[in-house]
Amino acid sequence: xxxATSYQQILAISTPIMLGSAVQNIIALxxxxxxxxxxxxxxxxxxxxxxxxxxxxxxxxxxxxxxxIIIARRMGEGQYQEVGRSFYAMLYFELALAVLMFGxxxxxxxxxxxFFVDSPTILQKSxxxxxxxxxxxxxxxxxxxxxxxxxxxxxxxxxxxxxIILAIVNILLNYCFIFGYxxxxxxFPAMGIAGAGLASTIAEGVAFVVFLGYMFWDQxxxxxxxxxxxxxxxxxxxxxxxxxxxxVAQAVVGLGSWFVFFGIVENLGERQLAITNLVRMVYxxxxxxxxxxxxxxxxxxSNFIGQRKRQAVIPIIWKTAKICLLFTLxxxxxxxxxxxxxxxxxxxxxxxxxxxxARPIFNVLIVILILFAIGGVYFNGLAGTGATYYGLKIQFFxxxxxLIYIYYVVEHAKGGLEWAWAAEIFxxxxxxxxxxxxxxxxxxxxxxx
Length: 449
Prior knowledge:
mainly alpha; two-stranded antiparallel sheet; 18 helices; globular
């Protein structure tokens, strides 16, 4: 498939990616909802450790973007055999990276978390979750490599099916392992937050096996020689690393600043952390269109450059941003304006005080999502040009300002959670302006990938 600039083509590519790129969001939502009904302590803990695991997942996802950009470029150039070589270079690196991250989560997090967490309860529950969740990194990292392949060749339709399977399995197993219910005649142990980690890992494993089976069945991938295992190509891996490393650094800086934010909020008490986790959970769900269209624009931009159609890059980014904003507003406004009614079926409880106390932050979230919808697409469009190091500079500058603002508001000004969350407005507005300036400069015309 050769991408075009029509709105229909943008939707055809971005909609499946919208769901596929939201895998970790879906898992985080499922874990949070079930633990919300278990206890406020577990709900607060999943907010903290959930953000940490999002960073872990984002590292693998970021490196896969380097492979995705090269695959899309080779597709645009018509070098189909190079697509398969690029995929395996990405896969080899992801597997090696998974081993390193697994070792850190198993042996390093107990010491690492003590720098951010004061509550012994939050610390213990976070480690219980990671004890089982850490095994999922192998399925996650190899899975994003496969998703990057199908996204790069602009054939992402099966991502929808695989994501639905993952969500169903995760919900069912969360129900069983967290509370210890019986399913299909099997009595499961009540494991609490550790059960959420186990359920999510098994769900990712099932989704990986299903997608692997689809790859073997898919006749159209024969063109890329995916079943001829190549030798390890260190030069190609290095090229992908050079493109992906700044994207990973961007994710670590962006989500890392969010992780520090949760650590600062945790110092205010478990109640404030629970409120922030509720807002985070809503934010993750409502930002799914943003992540999907942002990931899709990577493929579109890189493919057009491979076809020597650089003049189409900025128009396609703007078109994608408009669609993303429309989707985001349609989904977000009912939830944020009427949270008591929309969220009650999901979080139904006699005590709705968490939602009530979070309402001022939901108003701030409307502005954040508007800026994210446009800024996220433009920023990922920049990444699609190969200008990932400039993107890293932008994200680092924005993240430093973000952290300075949060530290001052929470630790000194005592401005409350809504003022702390307003830092996201500064973050996305600054990022959007700097990205537009760079794209209009046309310096990216000279980049080689």
